[in-house]
Structures are given as structure tokens and as C-alpha cells.
TrEMBL record, chain A:
It comes from Rhodobacter ferrooxidans. Its main location: membrane. It comes from the Bacteria. This is Binding-protein-dependent transport systems inner membrane component. Pfam families: BPD_transp_1 (PF00528), BPD_transp_1_N (PF19300). Belongs to the binding-protein-dependent transport system permease family.
TrEMBL record, chain B:
GO terms for biological process: peptide transport; transmembrane transport. Keywords: ATP-binding, Cell membrane, Membrane, Nucleotide-binding, Transport. This is Oligopeptide/dipeptide ABC transporter, ATPase subunit. Signal peptide: none annotated. Residues 12-260 form the ABC transporter domain. Its main location: membrane. Belongs to the ABC transporter superfamily. It comes from Rhodobacter ferrooxidans. GO terms for cellular component: plasma membrane. It is found in: Cell inner membrane.
Amino acid sequence: MLTFTIRRLLLAIPTLLFISLIIFLLLDMAPGSPMSQIPLTVPLEVRLKMIEALGANDPIFFRYINWLHKFFVIEPLHVFDGLFGTTFAGDSLRELSWQSRSPVADVIAQRIPQTLTVIGMSYLLGILIALPIGIYSAYRQYSWFDQLGTFISMIGFSVPTFFTGVLLIVVFSVKLHWFPSIYDTTLKVTDWASFGKQVKQMTMPVAVLGLYNAAQISRYMRSSMLENLTQDYVRTARAKGLSERVVVLKHVLRNSLIPVVTVIALGIPTIFGGAIITEQVFKVNGLGQLLITAIYANDLPMVQTLTFIFAVLIVLFNLVADILYGILDPRIRYD
Amino acid sequence: MPDGAMPVLDVRGLKTVFRTRGGEVHAVNAVSFHLMPGELLGVVGESGSGKSVTMMSLIGLLPSPPADVREGQVLLGGVDILKVSPEELRRVRGARIGFVFQDPMTSLNPVFTVGNQIIEPLRAHMGLNKAQAEARAVELLELVGIPDARNRLRSYPHQFSGGMRQRVMIAIALACDPEVLIADEPTTALDVTIQAQIIELVKELRHKLGMAIVWITHDLGVIAGIADRVMVMYGGQVVEQAPVKDLFADPRHPYTRALLKTIPKVSGVREARLQVIDGQPPILAGAPTACPFRARCAHAFARCHAENPQRRAIGAGRVGYGHDVACHWDPEATDA
């Protein structure tokens, strides 16, 4: 397993370099100018000088290598310095956002906590709801519980989050005044009162995304359970005189979890990707919102960096899924 | 087989129905049989004749719905286990009645070690602690002829061959010293040499442990080698039942006769074609009102279409204890 992991990690390097090149070239060739956000009253000579200063006129491969160097060396050093107070990075030039002129890494670091709390919580909640529902729905296939579960997950699946989000805002914020409609990022949790506020403002976005995630994962769990419930080894377990609890929650569940865990692991990068639409609806200024505003502003360094981070996470969690697969299923050995 | 001894398992008038979209299917119709302590009863019949369903009905292994065990008694040591609570029935399964299934490749759980799967019933029924159960598991694996048993406990099913897995299945079934072992086509999925090994193993274990065995198969050759008594099933009912020698020497039911003819002969004159019984076994949409074999029977006459024959004794003895057959046709009357 260890050699497999190391081999896969080494293989990830050329993969990611290739992805980075594609991302860089694609975005660079897209139409748009770094000056699109600058007022038209600024004279042309000044604009040209600004472009020059941003380094946006340099040859493309020079910029690509420069960007890679910053992404892998300079920015991590700066982040490290910021965390531990060291001075490894010195005064090397940082990757700056064209839009805000502040270092890309710093902006992303500011946005990560919101995304992780809101989106991460919704993912976790979705899993916690989905697994028991999926298990019970399969065990009592076609029962009223299963029918209801199927109906609700159809809704969760098919109704877009911008609709459920707005619906919740209309009902619970506008009419009932139970929850705030806007997520307040400046809120600091210092005591129980502010904690309560934080929970309150998280409730609706977490509910919207949780419903979507739960709908998806519970379907996977259900079908995987159904597939395993009819297997011969289940009959053997019953013939051994084991209780239904042990038969279902040990024998069937352990087998059914193998594909579901993979799906869950592969879904984790989407947490970091942020839920662009939901973050927009509830005004959560997380990574998704950062990406979309950067795209609007033609902020190439920011878009390239964010996209590449997502790519790294996807490659990484693919590996995690493969390793989990090997741990859960003894028939799969990678060495 | 002394007549006065008490049967360990006594099944009376068992009836199982499957409810399907297309109506009810009567899979088991008034099946009665008994099993003496230490006896090996062979159950033969082609696919769909109700052999497996009968045995699974006994201990509630059929999924319900669609299956519904409707009538009958299953007396295990004098207690009707169809009447007891599911919890009590669970304590019979694996403890007093062991089960070996057909396909050892799929009958073991792939994600648990073999040791874990043998230990489970030991801990559930016999209340052994982990160390005791492990010691017993090693004993069982040695009993079924798996070398290096202690280390093999930690192996997974996929690390065993088909024959080895069937040995493991037998070890699991025998874990709690059951009174009855039900073997549902235990050698069908194995190749011939492994088949012979498994049959030898069961013979040997029966000698050592003395449990009664129900051996389901569609291979009459296997039955001839190991069974004390044979029960032939067709269309969800028992059509003939006899001590093994009588059945092979003097088969009474046309179906039994046809089955015996289908056994290919290795020696002697080579026949042009393998013998077959024409037609398909019936799907029983209702409670039978006529002989289920009538459509494929060479001897069928008017009465066969009007009345389902009851089992009647051949010669002396009660039905079920000597030689009996469920057929209107009398071969002696015709042969003469």
C-alpha cells in the first residue's frame, strides 16, 4: 500500500503539471483585459503602463513558468512566514490579484474558513442524514418510508439550489424572521450568544446544500445496499442464526459502504470548490464567490490559482478514494 | 433405523406459496418427511422441483414477502419451529440446524476473514469468549481438513479455492454441533474431483459427529453413494420415497424411472444420445388438482388428469417409513 501511494503521488506530479499548463493557456487565451475594471477615464498610456507593471505583456511561457514558480515556491514560503513568523520568503515578488492588488494566497486564505464551515458542514450533515436513510430505505424497499425517501431525494436532486435557497429566504427570513438572509462574515464567535448567531446564519445555507448532498448520497447508499441484500452471503449470515441487526449493519453494510465511501471521498474537493450558487444566494463570501467575482473582473492570476487548487484537490482525493477502496475491500491489493 | 426411535426432524404437510404479480405460485405442496438421528436423506429432483424451497421454508430463510409458509408442522425434537417466535427460530438456525449452500464462491462474505465468519455463530449461540471461539474455530478448520488452520483463520475467502471455501462453509454449519445438517447442492458448483473430496469429507464427518443430514442434489449418482434413504420431488411434492437400495432396484414413479434413465453410462454400449425427459417442469399457479407430472408422463391416463395422487405405501409399512409413491399407475399391473 505504501509503495502504491508513493508511486501514485509521483505520478500525480506530471499529471498536475499538464493540468496547470492547460488551465494557464486556456484562461490566458480567453478574451478580456486586466484593465476591464479600470474606469474608462484613465488614459491609454497609463493603461499600457499598468499592463506593463502587471507583467501581463511578457511572453506567455515566461509568465507560465513565473506563475508556477510563485505557486509552488514563493507563495507557500510567504504563507509559512505568515504562520510561523519566519522570513524565508524575504521580499520576493508575490502573485498579485489584478483586481485587488493583494496577494492571491492571502485572499484565498481569508475565504477558506467560511467555505469550510458552511459547505463542509452541509456535506457532513448530508452524509449523516443520507447513510441511515439509504440503509433503511433499502432494507424496507417499497415501504412508505422508502417511497417518501425516494420522493424527497428526487426533490433534493432536481430542484436547483438557487430555487430552494430563495424559497427558504422568502419563508424563513422575509415572512417568519427566523433566520438572517445574509451571512455575516465579520461575526466572531466569542461567547454563546455569538455562537447562537453563527448557528442561525449557517442554518439555511447548510440546509439547502445538505438536502442536495443527502439526496445524492442516500441514493447511492440505497442502491448499494439493495445490491448486497440479495447476495448469497447474506443468506449464509441468516442461516448462521445471526440477528437481523448484525446481518444488515455488519455483513451488508460493510460491503455496501465500499462504493459509497469512494463517492464521498471524490465529493470532498467540491467542498473546497465552494457552492458558487448557494454562496451567492446567501452572500457567503467563500471560495465559490471569490472565483465567480474573479472571473467577472478578468482577474487571471486569481482564477488560474483557484482552478489549479481545485485540480490538485481532485487528484489528491482520487488517490484517497483509491486507498480507502483498498482498505475496505480485502480483495483489492495494490502491491 | 429402528421403527420406534423418535425422528430428530419431522415435517408434516408443509405448504409454501410465493405471492407474485402474476398470482400465487405453489412451490411446496403438502410435503411430509422425517429424519432419524444420524440418517442421511437424499432429496432429488430437477431444478424448480421445490427441493431447496422446502428446506429453506423449514427454518424461515425465505424472504417474506413474497414467500409465505402457509401450512404444516416442522417438529424439531418434538417442538414445532414454525410456531415459535422469530427470535427463537433464529436460535435454532446455525445452532441446531446447520446449512451448507450451493455456491461457495458467493456464500462467504468477501470482506471478513474466514475466522471471523466461523467465530460468529459460536459467539452468538454458544456464548464463547473470543479466545475459546478462536480455539474452536481452529478445531473446526482442522476437522474439515484445512491445513495450517491457525494461520488460515486470518485469510479472506478470496484467498481460498472453491473446494476449500466449501470446507469452510461446512465448518461454519457444523460450528455449534447441530443435530441436523442441510446441504443444498453442496457439490454442484465444484469440479468433479473436488466434488468427490467434499462427499468423502461429509461421509467422514457424519461418522465422527453423528448428525442427521439432508442432502439436496439433482445428481442421482451422488445419492447412490451416500444416502440411506431417498426422497424424489417433483412439482413441489414428494413423488416417491424409499430406502436407497429399493429406489434404485425398484423405482415406482414414472418420473423416478425417467430420472434413472438419464444417468449417462460410462461403460457398456455407447448410446447415440443422452437420455432426456421431454418437456418442462410445471409452474404451479394453483393448489394442484391433478398429477403434476401428467404432461410429461408416458403412462398418464384419465385419472391422472382429474386427481392428484396421494402417497401410498408399497408393500408393508407406513407411508414415509418404507417405500412409498404418489402415482395412480401401477407398473406391476401393466408390466404383467
